[in-house]
Amino acid sequence: MQKAVSNIIFCLGLLMLGFGLNYTLSTRLIGGALIIVGLGLDPKIWNYFKQPNNGK
Questions:
Q1: Its domain of life (predicted)?
Q2: What b/e string do you get for 4-41 counting C-beta neighbours within 10 Å, with b at 16 or more?
Protein backbone atom coordinates (compact mmCIF):
# COMPACT_ATOMS: atom_id res chain seq x y z
CA MET A 1 0.00 0.00 0.00
CA GLN A 2 2.76 2.42 0.97
CA LYS A 3 4.62 1.58 -2.25
CA ALA A 4 1.53 2.39 -4.35
CA VAL A 5 1.03 5.74 -2.62
CA SER A 6 4.72 6.51 -3.11
CA ASN A 7 4.48 5.73 -6.84
CA ILE A 8 1.36 7.87 -7.29
CA ILE A 9 2.95 10.87 -5.55
CA PHE A 10 6.17 10.39 -7.54
CA CYS A 11 4.24 10.30 -10.86
CA LEU A 12 2.27 13.41 -9.91
CA GLY A 13 5.54 15.14 -9.15
CA LEU A 14 6.96 14.16 -12.54
CA LEU A 15 3.83 15.43 -14.28
CA MET A 16 3.92 18.75 -12.43
CA LEU A 17 7.63 19.09 -13.16
CA GLY A 18 6.99 18.42 -16.86
CA PHE A 19 4.06 20.81 -17.11
CA GLY A 20 5.96 23.31 -14.99
CA LEU A 21 8.44 23.80 -17.83
CA ASN A 22 5.66 25.66 -19.64
CA TYR A 23 4.33 27.44 -16.56
CA THR A 24 5.78 29.06 -13.48
CA LEU A 25 8.67 28.28 -11.19
CA SER A 26 6.30 27.50 -8.30
CA THR A 27 4.73 24.66 -10.29
CA ARG A 28 8.18 23.17 -10.83
CA LEU A 29 9.02 23.57 -7.14
CA ILE A 30 5.81 21.78 -6.11
CA GLY A 31 6.56 19.02 -8.63
CA GLY A 32 10.08 18.64 -7.29
CA ALA A 33 8.79 18.54 -3.71
CA LEU A 34 6.27 15.83 -4.66
CA ILE A 35 9.06 13.75 -6.21
CA ILE A 36 11.11 14.03 -3.02
CA VAL A 37 8.08 13.12 -0.87
CA GLY A 38 7.27 10.19 -3.17
CA LEU A 39 10.82 8.88 -2.94
CA GLY A 40 10.79 9.44 0.82
CA LEU A 41 7.65 7.33 1.19
CA ASP A 42 9.16 4.45 -0.79
CA PRO A 43 9.74 1.62 1.73
CA LYS A 44 12.93 0.41 0.02
CA ILE A 45 14.58 3.82 0.20
CA TRP A 46 13.23 4.36 3.75
CA ASN A 47 14.74 1.06 4.92
CA TYR A 48 18.05 1.85 3.22
CA PHE A 49 18.46 5.02 5.27
CA LYS A 50 17.15 3.45 8.50
CA GLN A 51 19.59 0.54 8.49
CA PRO A 52 22.76 1.06 10.53
CA ASN A 53 25.96 1.66 8.60
CA ASN A 54 28.07 -1.23 9.81
CA GLY A 55 30.76 -0.72 7.20
CA LYS A 56 31.71 2.79 8.31
A1: Bacteria
A2: eebeebbebbeebbeebeeeeeebbebbeebbeebeeb
Residue 27 lies in a domain: yes
Q: What is the pLDDT of residues 1-54, one digit of tens each?
A: 767 777 777 777 777 766 656 666 777 777 778 878 877 777 676 677 677 665
Contact of 38 with 10, CB cutoff 8 Å = yes
Number of domains in the chain: 1
CA 38 to centroid of chain Cα atoms? 3
pTM: 0.47
